[in-house]
Amino acid sequence: MTKQIDETDRALIALLSRDARSPVATLARRLDLARSTVQARLERLERAGVIAGYTLRLGADARPAIRATALLSVEAHRQAALVSTLEAIPEVEVVHTTSGRFDLMIQIGAPTTEALDAVLDRIHAAKGVKSSESLIHLTTRIDRRPL
């Protein structure tokens, strides 16, 4: 099923991306539409899976102080078990499979460099990890993620 999204839907999504708590009446006023029209569009976008949910975005003071990405090369047939191991590490926030030189890209958040070091040691020692490379995030220059 192709999800049809028009310019009005895109504008609605853009407004919600900036503030997911915007009241429907405010969205309607900004889009110059009736409140019932905006409500119907929201419901359609939710049913279609275009809008998967509403959430909050933590400010810098509420997020872990140190952020890093670990790139892992994984032994063949060990990836599923390794992902289960990573799932048990609370500092591991996101795990992506990748193409190219590395098999997994892991986003990590830790309160201190010592805690990050301990997490990286744990990841690097996990069964199935052939090699790894770690990148500590310094400054975020662009962040367009709605979450």
Tell me the structural class: alpha+beta
Strand content range:
15-25%
Q: Strand count, sense and closure of the main sheet?
A: 4 strands, antiparallel
What is the second-level CATH architecture of the largest domain? 2-Layer Sandwich
Distance between the termini: 26 Å
Described by the principal axes of the CA atoms, the overall outline is elongated
Give, in spatial order, the strands making up the sheet with the most strands: 2-3-1-4
Which stretches are low in confidence, meaning pLDDT under 50 for 5 or more residues running? none
Mean pLDDT metric? 91
Radius of gyration: 20 Å
What can you see in these coordinates?
The protein has helices spanning 7-18, 24-31, 35-47, 79-87, 113-124; strands at 66-74, 92-97, 104-110, 129-136. The mean pLDDT is 91. A four-stranded antiparallel sheet has the order 2-3-1-4. The chain is α+β, with helices and mostly antiparallel strands.
What brief labels describe this structure?
single chain, 147 residues, alpha+beta, Arc Repressor Mutant, subunit A, Alpha-Beta Plaits, 2 domains, four-stranded antiparallel sheet, 5 helices, 4 strands, 37% helix, elongated
